[in-house]
Write a structure and sequence with these properties.
This protein is about 35% helix and about 20% strand. The chain is of the alpha/beta class and about 325 residues long. The protein has 2 domains: about 55 residues, no CATH class; about 250 residues, Alpha-Beta Barrel (TIM Barrel). Strands 7-8-9-10-11-12-13-14 form an 8-stranded parallel beta barrel, surrounded by 7 helices. It has a 4-stranded antiparallel β-sheet with strand order 2-3-1-4. β12, α9 and β13 form a beta-alpha-beta unit. α4 runs parallel beside α5. It is elongated and about 75 Å long. Bound molecules: phosphoenolpyruvate and manganese (II) ion. The site of phosphoenolpyruvate has 10 residues, from loops.
């Protein structure tokens, strides 16, 4: 992405026409034009020859390490990202018991889920709601994943929890409510692991990318972005799943992005159609909540699928 600075006496409209003729998408600024990332590739030298242009500069990105990361992140030997087979991350909202997580993992592994998800520490809107079983749930989850050849992705909610969660997780999850908790991002980075960074329900893409930058600055080995829906005005779905942002991150920024249509819609009947749409938009994988008895789930039952319900998706697009 370039910034084209023009002479104060230059005809800005004429410069703009010349830029557009060279396949550039331009955004005016007070000193010239910013060329958007989806513009055609043109050398700075060629742009500098346009009459009225005084300088072509590369504006300093607010997330240089994210820009340089590349499209693929390795998580304990599994490559997640652009150009690789899409990954399925699945499991219950919360890890409820050892038997239950073993049972769910056993059903998910043969369906191609390489990652077992589940919360041991749960961010709940109500302080009276089930908060997760904590450390023992991490142990149950690790055993269930190892037993079935899966990787573990699970959330750390507080700085003080990071070292413990990092002992058990292959991929550390930062939840939507904590995307802008910079103390937590620093602590998560220090664990030197890959991180799944969920988008805050009120974050712009730029804020999300800069949160990713925090993780890399502090030592994370890679950042996988996770779109999980933003707050909309319409209550017919739990959130507004922003697939435009997914396409932007994947196709323009060339970053690995996973989509969570479970929290994105809050409705089990919409999870599979949105998972397919996400993969079409460029997602490197999907995170889907599953439970062997959704009616009895301790949290998020209405959006949970049974593992068997993933068969069609797995056979169509994930294999
Ligand atoms: C989760 O994935 O367990 C979760 C709580 O999701 P989010 O942070 O997106 O609300
Ligand atoms: Mn949930």
């Amino acid at each position: 992405m370039w910034m084209v600075l023009i002479d104060s006496s230059a005809d800005a409209d004429a410069v703009k026409r010349e830029l557009i003729a060279r396949g550039q998408w331009v955004r005016p600024t007070d000193r010239g034009f910013v060329l958007e990332p989806h513009s055609s590739r043109v050398s700075a030298d060629e742009l500098a020859k346009i009459p009225g242009v005084v300088q072509v500069v590369s504006p300093k990105s607010s997330h240089p390490k994210i820009d340089a990361q590349g499209p693929v992140v390795d998580v304990a030997g599994v490559k997640v990202g652009v150009g690789n087979k899409p990954v399925l991350m699945s499991g219950p909202c919360a890890v409820e018991s050892e038997e239950r997580i073993q049972q769910i993992a056993k059903k998910l592994a043969p369906r191609g889920a390489l990652f077992l998800r589940g919360g041991a520490f749960k961010p709940r809107t109500s302080p009276y709601a089930f908060q997760g079983h904590g450390e023992v749930a991490l142990q149950w989850m690790r055993r269930a994943a190892d037993h079935n050849g899966m990787r573990v992705v699970t959330e750390a909610m507080a700085e003080s929890e990071v070292p413990l969660v990092a002992e058990y997780a292959d991929l550390l999850q930062i939840g939507s409510r904590n995307m802008a908790n910079y103390a937590l991002l620093k602590a998560a980075g220090k664990a030197r692991k890959p991180v799944l960074l969920k988008r805050s329900m009120s974050a712009t893409v730029s804020e999300w990318l800069q949160a990713g930058e925090y993780l890399l600055v502090h030592g994370a080995s890679g950042v996988i972005f996770c779109e999980r829906g933003i707050r909309g005005f319409d209550e017919s779905t739990r959130n507004l799943l922003d697939l435009g942002a997914v396409a932007l991150l994947s196709h323009v920024h060339r970053l690995p992005v996973v989509v969570d249509p479970s929290h994105g819609t809050g409705r089990r009947d919409l999870v599979l159609p949105l998972a397919r749409a996400a993969l079409s938009a460029g997602a490197a994988g999907v995170m889907i909540e599953t439970h062997d008895d959704p009616g009895r789930a301790l949290s998020d039952g209405p959006q949970a699928l049974r593992p068997e319900e993933l068969d069609a998706l797995a056979s169509e697009v994930l294999r």
